[in-house]
Sequence to fold (244 residues):
Amino acid sequence: MQTLSFKNYEVLSDYMADIIANSIKNEPNLVLCMASGSTPALTCDLLVQKLKEGQVDYSKFTFLGLDEWVGLPPTNTGSCHYFFHKKIFEPLQLSPSQYFLFNALAEDLKDECSKMDKMISDKGGIDIMIVGIGMNGHIGFNEPGTSFTLLSHVAELDEITKSVGQKYFDGPVALGEGITIGLGHLMNTKKVFLMANGSKKAEVIKKTIEGPVTKSFPASIMQKHPDGCILIDEEAGSLLKKDK
Ligand code: PGA
Fold:
């Protein structure tokens, strides 16, 4: 596992966006899976800019959304659907056949999971996955205790996720379950990037990099990934041992 540290959030996001844009340029059929949230927000904006300015052909890559809050309509401004529509799909005018996000309103959520699993397998696997990290060490909605081998699944949300998650919404929202791509898919992804910025993430980044690999702290799985990379800014890395 590689760890790269950047001066600040802006430089980190620029680096991440460059990697994605260049990967799409070199491999137009790339399969990209991304998390929504505060961390990748600037990466998305810069990615759109780089793809447009770099005259990259972005009409063939596949975009998969990592997760969604169960029960939320895509029009809810705190939903992952809303985030990606505004940040990626609309600015790039992607064809709906190019992206797949979980329908969190579906009556049969298991079927939604099967659809995602089939999509990933039909596309020959995920090439690049970009995730953030929760304050409890979760990745997507792979909450503490989740098996490292699960594929797409519905998860009961941890109390920390329910309370921290309120930041995405205009007013209080009852959050109960999430639907998510699982850690089994993460392990099968060719290249995984975990991004974190700000001093509030310093503790969880320390555990991710220096702590034991354990189901009770899902992000620790990054230590096991054959091509995993942690991207942090100086604040998120402030508690790491000096030689890291
Ligand atoms: P954030 O979310 O990027 O909004 O901090 C990270 C996460 O909960 O996975």
